[in-house]
Model the fold of this input.
Amino acid sequence: MDIVTLRDLFEEQIRDLHSGEKQIIDALPEMIEATTDSELQNALRNHLEETREQLERLEKVGKMLDFRVKGETCDGMKGIIKEGNKLVTKDVEEDEVRDAAIVAALQRVEHYEIAVYGTVTTFARMLGEDQVLKLLQTSLDEEKEADATLTRIAEAHVNRRAMASGD
Amino acid sequence: MDIVTLRDLFEEQIRDLHSGEKQIIDALPEMIEATTDSELQNALRNHLEETREQLERLEKVGKMLDFRVKGETCDGMKGIIKEGNKLVTKDVEEDEVRDAAIVAALQRVEHYEIAVYGTVTTFARMLGEDQVLKLLQTSLDEEKEADATLTRIAEAHVNRRAMASGD
Done:
């Protein structure tokens, strides 16, 4: 693909995000299944719903600015999910430690998304696309909130339970 | 690998980080070469030096806690770098837009690392490894600072130059 203008780069980043969100929607159910902490499980279920809405927002952005959002593969997210899946489903043998591993894997996902939504909100602002900016800012705020929720749950009990087990 | 305790998970995350830092050290020179903005280029040179020190800190952690930090491949970082390289060296055709793409690609790297250093500092604190915690906290602070520097440079001129070019 030929990227010549900042708008081209913006569209490429949106396509990349679209692929990333789709990969998360595909990967989360297995993570939810693997979780034994009920608060963590509920938080992940909520985030799966949120991610579906984030995907729809990106499709809306494509319609508003008249470009195709589908058809790209986000290699970054592919690697992050591959690694998280291996850790959670193969490497970890204790339930309580697995919950801590799930939090760790998903915080990588969240931070990665925070970076990309940070980039596209900046570009949307520069391009003067205020309505698009509003949609992307909503998703960025949700990702930050999802990351903070994971930290809160980990600190509240997941990490302590992991510490107490297996020793 | 069998992960049974939180300490096992901590060691696995450190090995993953070690692989990630090594991959960044290998990838940054090409990014520096591709940059046309001198302030961005200087910032990346500084960060390459910093990354070498972060790698050494991880090796120190391995020595202090008596475990091997080498021998793992961080698939997440591998995907992020693959994607960034493709974007910067193949897809983007305009110098000024490429600088904006480099910032975008590296902020994905930084945020990903912020997530992992966040996890390992939390684990080090729980495990009561205060000296190790101090080393990891130094690297975490540096990553946050590197991300903030990229934002500052992008907002100061890289993005504006990208906006003005190619249209």
